Amino acid sequence: xxxxxxxxxxxxxxxxxxxxxxxxxxxxxxxxxxxxxxxxxxxxxxxxxxxxxxxxxxxxxxxxxxxxxxxxxxxxxxxxxxxxxxxxxxxxxxxxxxxxxxxxxxxxxxxxxxxxxxxxxxx
Length: 123
Description:
There is one protein chain. The chain is mainly alpha-helical. The protein has one domain (2-104). The protein contains four helices and two strands; from the N terminus they run H-H-E-E-H-H. It has a two-stranded antiparallel ribbon with strand order 1-2. Helix 1 crosses helix 2 (20-44). The longest helix is centred in the N-terminal third of the chain and has 25 residues, at 20-44. It starts with a helix and ends in a 19-residue tail after the last helix.
């Protein structure tokens, strides 16, 4: 949970680097929270089949949109790639696969143009 809160604290920080752990824990907790909010939306009747989400899920999605982009950009920086690589996700299927590969890659060792390795000197 600390990794999720750390990413939320860096709400719109697009510089620096994010470890795999920070990125994937953020994705995990986002998914869990969204599923719980969707269940609440269905139970309260605020779920819209056409929109594919409910009121609470929509508000949450808007609230974490910027931190999600920011942590993804920092994760790409950790693999020594520009944050602009995030736009590759706009290419159907292939873009998502390429982005997934980038997100699971290990950090580039040592310091790169985006900052020091967040794993520290032990990496």
